[in-house]
Amino acid sequence: MKILMVEDDKSIIDAVTIAFEFRWPEAEVLSSLTGENISRIIRAESPDVVLLDLNLPKTSGFEILDEIRSFSSVPVIMLTVRTADEDIVRALEAGADDYITKPFNYMTLLSRVRAVHRRSAMAPGMGGQSTFINARLTVNFVDRIVKVDNQVADLTQLEYKTLILLIKHQNKLLSYDEIALEIWGDANETEKAKVKITIGRLRKKLSDIPPQLILNVRGKGYMLKT
User: Fold this and answer.
1) pTM, whole model, 2 decimals?
2) Strand 174-175, strand 98-101: pairing
């Protein structure tokens, strides 16, 4: 397990590194104080998770996230002092897998890293299935290719895992809490908001507007209708 931390505060890097050494000793923590050469670092080191500070010198964490998403689906957790809803929405819409505000509890951070790593390591198939097919949607679990109306849908890791969760429980209503717990390991109000944002992005990429594939029962949750 390899974690790349992009953070300009050395004291935070040191504290996170110590937390991992104590609680998750098999994890290796790499770090960069700037977002420079991020593409080269990720290609050379192949991290399992990236922890990305939003406020970096010279460039924005959003710009770095865009650069990462242009070539990689590695899970990215944003770390920031910004708590505004629009920043959370923007990060998730740009392809972040999670968003943690500073100051944060280090055990919470480790839990979130474990959650996104678990999602990225999930077996691609379900019950021996290699594909899922309905009238409009085809998912190749082996190659992780999603097609809608025979056109490839470019999903982020988070969007893909959310879709797989819905497929696994097709035609069954999943509550906001159930989705949040499975995807982020928590079910507070912030996680419930993330569910709505992620489903909204997923619907757009699946050309499911107005919704016919992913249906919502207001105030309760979502289901994939087959």
Assistant:
1) 0.69
2) unpaired
